[in-house]
């Protein structure tokens, strides 16, 4: 795939690394050309440094928005002409001080990106784990690959993101349309509250799948 990355920070670094190793053509776009050059060199695999506009234009298959929630919609609005018909992958977490959801009562961050670039097909994924988990090769725990929920409305866009999830060594799971993206953002806020705020094991809050609809029938 031809992938454009908007941002030169931690998530851009963690995800682009997997994707160049999987053989994708990646362009790293930053507002600071030196940071784009440094990250492209670090990621290797022929990744090219660019400005934000050039990266958006080069992401013919997928454009990753690896930007803070506060900046994402403005950056994407500015690039919207280049994003028409594109798959726009949103990994953002609109979380503020006290692990508060900054979108409370407003559209999800993913919906706000979609409103800023109405011609783009926004897909939400990769927001639930820390950057260092995404850097793992692969993110496998107790022999089980990490499952990554993916939300989006466009089948082609969702299929591309599912492939990018597999390229990180994870397993994609369908989490519904883009209307469900706010649930992934709230889940991130809950997980961070449990992990960081309470020192609790977020993984332990759900029963095994066999118990999803109640206790297993007794034999
Ligand atoms: N880090 C994690 O563990 C993690 C995990 C899951 C999801 N996320 C989400 O992923 C997104 C990116 O996080 P990150 O950790 O990669 O952030 P980061 O390391 O701070 O990188 C953010 C990038 O966005 C750029 N940027 C900021 N404001 C901008 C603006 N107004 N115009 C253009 N570019 C701008 C920064 O450019 P400069 O360097 O020039 O400032 C930088 O390249 C966030 O929404 C975050 O919530 C993060």
Automatic annotation (TrEMBL):
<feature type="domain" description="Pyrroline-5-carboxylate reductase catalytic N-terminal">
    <location>
        <begin position="2"/>
        <end position="94"/>
    </location>
</feature>
<dbReference type="GO" id="GO:0016491">
    <property type="term" value="F:oxidoreductase activity"/>
</dbReference>
<dbReference type="InterPro" id="IPR028939">
    <property type="entry name" value="P5C_Rdtase_cat_N"/>
</dbReference>
<keyword id="KW-0560">Oxidoreductase</keyword>
<dbReference type="Pfam" id="PF03807">
    <property type="entry name" value="F420_oxidored"/>
</dbReference>
<dbReference type="InterPro" id="IPR036291">
    <property type="entry name" value="NAD(P)-bd_dom_sf"/>
</dbReference>
<protein>
    <submittedName>
        <fullName>NAD(P)-binding domain-containing protein</fullName>
    </submittedName>
</protein>
<dbReference type="InterPro" id="IPR051267">
    <property type="entry name" value="STEAP_metalloreductase"/>
</dbReference>
């Amino acid at each position: 795939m031809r992938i454009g990355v908007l941002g030169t920070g931690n998530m851009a670094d963690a995800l682009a690394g997997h994707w160049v190793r999987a053989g994708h053509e990646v362009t790293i776009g930053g507002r600071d050309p030196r940071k784009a050059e440094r990250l492209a060199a670090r990621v290797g695999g022929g990744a090219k440094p660019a400005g934000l506009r050039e990266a958006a234009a080069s992401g013919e298959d997928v454009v990753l928005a690896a930007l803070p929630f506060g900046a994402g919609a403005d950056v994407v609005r500015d690039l919207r002409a280049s994003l028409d018909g594109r798959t726009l992958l949103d990994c953002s977490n609109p979380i503020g001080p006290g692990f508060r959801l900054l979108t409370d009562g407003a559209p999800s961050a993913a919906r706000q990106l979609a409103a800023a670039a109405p011609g783009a097909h926004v897909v939400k994924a990769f927001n639930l784990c820390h950057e260092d988990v995404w850097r793992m090769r692969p993110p496998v725990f107790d022999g089980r690959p990490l499952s990554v929920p993916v939300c989006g409305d466009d089948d082609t866009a969702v299929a591309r993101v599912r492939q990018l999830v597999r390229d990180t060594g994870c397993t994609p799971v369908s989490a519904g349309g883009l209307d469900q993206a706010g649930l992934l953002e709230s889940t991130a806020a809950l997980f961070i509250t449990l992990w960081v705020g309470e020192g609790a094991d977020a993984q332990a809050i759900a029963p095994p799948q066999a118990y999803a609809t109640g206790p297993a029938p007794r034999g």
